[in-house]
Design a protein that fits this description.
globular, NAD(P)-bd_dom_sf (chains A, B, C, D), 2 domains, 9 helices, 328 residues, Dihydrodipicolinate Reductase, domain 2, 38% helix, 6-stranded parallel beta sheet, GFO_IDH_MocA-like_dom (chains A, B, C, D), Rossmann fold, alpha/beta, 7-stranded mixed beta sheet, homotetramer, 15 strands, Gfo-Idh-MocA_inositol_DH (chains A, B, C, D)
């Protein structure tokens, strides 16, 4: 009854997923982890009884003990691993992006369609965050009327040294693109990267503000601030005809001292979305066992990557870039 | 020692100012109020001992008992009354806008310069709101680094039936324009009105989103929502290099009942900015007595009207409109 | 029309009152200030045009220009000055306590009754704080059912060196006693001082917790913490049958920086109750002009002092002390 | 590697534990559930593959597939089942109370001591709630100085019809007693039940206020309000020498509508402590596997029951009741 899970990638994200599989979800067993850097794979496998280390992700996928695969390896390796999972007929939860290019996403999507079976889930974990779930249900119930605007901010305390302006879009903004589509049930039809003052010497274009236009007329302004200094903070206000909703966050204790009353921010995504990652895994396991899939699918992965490509083009050109929809 | 004040206009705003002069500031006496509708003027004068009613604002200005004038009459009458005050050598606090057109503002500004004496204050009362004052001082102290972005929203519960899309700009957005200039110490160089979904049948373009570009690179997104339904709510987040500041508001009691924990919003600006109006009057009286003027002057009035004209042009054309600065 | 006000006492509290009279209320003029330390009286009178300095409060009361008197001198002088005001037939706003002993309060109360005219208001300014006013109106409207419990805390950042345990009661707790009576419309019938751990070496019994029993069965726990270190903070939660109400406070800006999201506390009562003091003066001036008095009267002053005496007795004995009501 | 868990009791609490074991923790399998009402046991076992139903808890304990036992049956059955677990040498997580009487607790404690092996954990799940954990760590780090006071409230939306005043203590207050001991590291030495106004006709003595005195001088006031109407709300403020800490709670979205800004309360403990129950189980499983036990042990279970007995005695007598410590 317990499902054997293999994790590809033993970096920060892969290690986190591996530990969540092993300790914080039911009905699963971590049986394998792979990383080209064998020591990283061994560090995890040594920690978790019954988990074997691999250096080759394709071998992990082929291993009979691995019943379903979680991909947390570098972005450019995603397509190859996902296709191998499809070839092996195994369920796969692939970290975003499904592929760095829309061509890659399309290849994967077509392969899954040819197979005639849904096996791919994309790791847009915010769809499992209780606050986003509640925000979407308010909208669906219609009690505030239709959606008009969304104000979003995605703030990291600090970006790593290798961070590029493009990565604000491919790493951070894609989460916003997916959640905007998911919350409103509408497609993104245009995106514009705006000029603003920059932090420090401005080598990194930070913060970056995007205007996102949805097919149903909803407009979203999205701030992406990778060096916001004060902490990890994800903010969304949904403005409807009869009221607005602010995204909640886990509320730590309130400390009164030294003249102020303060709550702390988490230093990174783990303190904010740890629960969403856990619930995403739980839901994915349920779908592996045959329940209706709940998360983002390959077409959602494609949609997010296409908007990201448009945002990168706008960043380059300084102009509004439209996104053609595939629908006939 | 007590200064005799005359108020022109006995509508909602004028009546409020009259009562504040009479009861909530020191060293002033309401001696006159005028309104073409004599019954409105009499309603106020009957309420306040020592206050005489007028139907003609120019007569009020000329009256010797009136030492300083507060103008709260319809916008198109402002220029004439302000010029009359200058002619009489009397201090004047003029409700915004100083004039509906930049040409009108310029006429007034030049008349004051020709006089060689600063007599005009424009009623941008937010400059006296303790929350904005604190936000500005944070920026001035530099402890959060330089300003990068501002996120603003101006929400009214409901707009009157005669409200037009243009009035979102001339009545509401002008406060945002002035406060953005005052907070950052920088000029607005361009404004863009954006398309978004509209409430109801969309006869009124509501909400309206403006992008405001400042000379120092700061970018502000400004939501103007005249029928936001839930209450009167003014929101500003200042995003700096090392932190952000959210505008506070008077915090009423927290009510826990029926499944929720709630605070109420005021139904209009009186519940939010009553104190700012009072403090503005107090500061204006001090300047009438000879202290350094603290509020917006005629050139600030001109600047706000010029940005409003650009915003109206953008609303019409759908394009970004630049604002030429007068500076050499 | 303008009322001439004399202030007795030019310490921190008297100086604050004098400036509020001069600048922040309408229809009044500060005409006199007295202090045995002439330099203190002159410091204020030099600041405010038309204000004359006195060294003797009785002379100030007798001065014809003084139409109404505000007493902010040391507690033990209150009775003498209040009686002199009654003798002169002048309205008096006396800082709490009306008298340090219930005998003193009773003497004053009887003198006023003999006069047959209400001239005394006691400075329990919280009755004018908008948050307390709203809390009381919730209770009166009955929408939450009847009151059951109150949880109160009175915290000062630091107590002056001369502070004694008794002063926690006579200076701080009296405000709580008055507001409990005023909120609930019920009398206090018993009070118990409880033992708890103490800050520092415990020379000052701080914090002190009092249990207060009301005639209608309502129970209040009151924390008095004179060296709470983090700021000035007054907290009240009213627990009713169907919900609770937390006292709001002016909400300064929210600062996000260095890992936290914080609001500041005022360092003393001026940042919290400045508005209540202003509104109290405004209401008192209205009653001087003949309107229905709105604040605490001499019998309220007596009631608070009687409860304070009981609390001091309980502090001494460690036992519950009952308070006999005068009512037949 | 997976541990086979048996749950005794298939009521609300037992069913919740069973589902958490099956779905939300790693390395465990729900293999058995028992309830005298066979249909309740079958309802759960039918839902979870591999889980067998029992009607007799002792049979469940004896079953070889059951490696560790979770007791969620009626209070009076706890002692028998715990002793059977000890007899079988199996780890047991027993819902509070360990036993309804201190004699029962002592019997169990002595049996465990005789065995020479720690096998018992008591279900005081708050010790795993992240907010309490953080509050305790603040105290341990000493950055706010020593603890002085605690203000606690335990509010349920509604109590079931069969609820008695005693149950406010045995069901609700015991959690407070345990957490006070755990937070401060000090023992409770006396408790006093106070009189207050009551909701409705007062048949149930509700709310109930307890004064709790700790060995180190800390004083806690504890409100127990079983019909607080507005929602499930657990509040704790820890007052230290240099600051205070308010217990956080999961912060749902903020809804602005109809004149207010509101957050909702959960309707019962599941919305507040669901995560604590999950983390408690996870930690218990780790201790079953041999790690250092983290939760409350049998002596903690005894301590809570002894304080509850004292509180019941005080409820009866109206007097302060001391609790003798066992320590030599």
């Amino acid at each position: 009854m317990t499902i054997g899970i293999g994790v590809i990638g033993a970096g920060v994200m892969g290690a986190d997923h591996a530990r969540t599989v092993a300790r914080h979800v039911g009905g699963a067993e971590l049986v394998a982890i792979s990383d080209p850097d064998e020591s990283r794979a061994r560090a995890i496998s040594g920690e978790i009884a019954g988990c074997r280390p691999f250096t080759d992700g394709l071998e992990l996928i082929a291993d009979p003990a691995v019943e379903a695969v979680l991909i947390a390896s570098p972005d450019h390796t995603h397509v190859g691993f996902v296709l191998a999972c499809l070839g092996a007929g195994k369920h796969v939860l692939c970290e975003k992006p499904l592929a760095p290019t829309s061509a890659g996403c399309r290849e994967v999507l077509e392969a899954e369609r040819a197979l005639g079976r849904r096996l791919i889930q994309v790791g847009f974990m915010r769809r499992f965050d209780p606050a986003y779930v509640e925000m979407r249900s308010v909208l669906k119930r219609g009690e505030l009327g239709k959606a008009l605007l969304l104000h979003c901010a995605h703030r990291n305390a600090t970006a790593p040294g290798f961070f590029t302006p493009e990565m604000s879009i491919t790493n951070a903004a894609v989460h916003e693109f997916d959640i905007l589509r998911w919350l409103t049930g509408s497609e993104i039809i245009a995106v514009t990267a705006l000029n603003s003052a920059r932090k420090g010497d401005g080598g990194l274009r930070d913060p970056l503000v995007l205007l996102v236009e949805m097919e149903d007329g909803v407009l979203a302004d999205v701030e992406l601030f990778m060096n916001a200094a004060y902490g990890y903070d994800i903010r969304t206000e949904l403005v409807c005809e009869n009221g607005t909703v602010d995204l909640g966050r886990p509320a730590p204790n309130l400390h009164r001292r030294a003249g102020t009353e303060a709550r702390s921010f988490p230093s990174d995504w783990r303190g904010r979305f740890g629960d969403a990652y856990r619930l995403q895994l739980q839901a994915w396991l349920a779908s592996v066992r045959g329940q209706e899939p709940a998360g983002a699918d390959a077409s959602d992965g494609l949609a997010a990557t296409r908007v990201a490509e448009a945002a990168l083009a706008s960043l380059e050109s300084g102009r509004r870039v439209e996104i053609a929809t595939d629908r006939p």
